[in-house]
């Protein structure tokens, strides 16, 4: 559903998927600015919508100018306290392209669940190593853990001097957080990677990630474990070189599982050109599936960039590639319940509505974020979540077992 503007918001979208144990909700709210009064109004609208549905938050991502981070988070804490919620509820704050002097819109993406009538599902905050906190969902045969804003800070809280050292520590810290809850990286369905200087060292990040995965038998090919879905984009939470969010899912045998979507008729495996991630990851549970689509750009089946300097053609290519990826899983662009539209410059942002109209698409619930994409010639990128109220056609595998790509 989409709610009309209230004057403080440009839009609120709520997309839901009902399972027997819980209903999954994806709430997207986009504000007109990052001013304190606008931020307060935005969080009030979000909290009201969640309270009305009994939503327990799992993952909350705030997209706004990092120069306004403190005031935005203070407004959020105030609203949470007024609602009787934990004012320290974990969240991720990210700014795509910093240095805008506090200007720019404010948006929030919240993923949460509404427990079923039997009360079999619950969500709690868990304390993790390194003074981190995560959110843990438990339901019959299911554990879901989300940990956000994992940086490359060492155990003392200091950031190593180089991006590579920070990236290595970031992955190790994520590993420790998962282990604390009895999980491993083999259970990770999705990662979000934000790099302050993306174009300077995206290749270096891929080297660190691939080496880390290889040590844990995450190779993308049997007998190794599948790569998680992922987005690697420009972004920062504070003054770090890189920051990561991690989503891990542990499904009991016979209850469903995780299934990587590595390729489509338009794009082949990303690892063929050095990026260790699956194109998407499908989570099957209780007869429904949630599909996390990795950051997708205008790249062909051979890994080559297409439509240089043409944002309209790149966006069309990107949407067609996402549609091709979802199709074998029984989903389409119409099933997208949340996502992010990354654009490199203002001209690239303005093509979105025109392209959707040309393709006959409804307006998708995408948050617009100004950010560099992983290659200098690429102007747009989209990540998305699709919600499908039917089982996947292909057999699912547990996140801890080898999967056929």
Structural overview:
- Helices cover about 25% and strands about 35% of the residues.
- The N terminus and C terminus are likely disordered.
- It is globular, with a radius of gyration of 19 Å.
- It has about 400 residues and is an alpha+beta fold.
- The protein has one domain: 60s Ribosomal Protein L30, Chain: A (2-Layer Sandwich), CATH 3.30.1330.
- The chain contains 7 helices and 18 strands.
- Helix 1 packs parallel to helix 2, helix 3 packs across helix 4 and helix 5 packs across helix 7.
- Strand 14 and strand 15 form a beta hairpin.
- The strands form 3 sheets. The protein has a 6-stranded mixed beta sheet, with helices on one face. The chain has a 6-stranded mixed beta sheet with strand order 7-8-9-12-10-11. The protein has a 6-stranded mixed beta sheet with strand order 13-14-15-18-16-17.
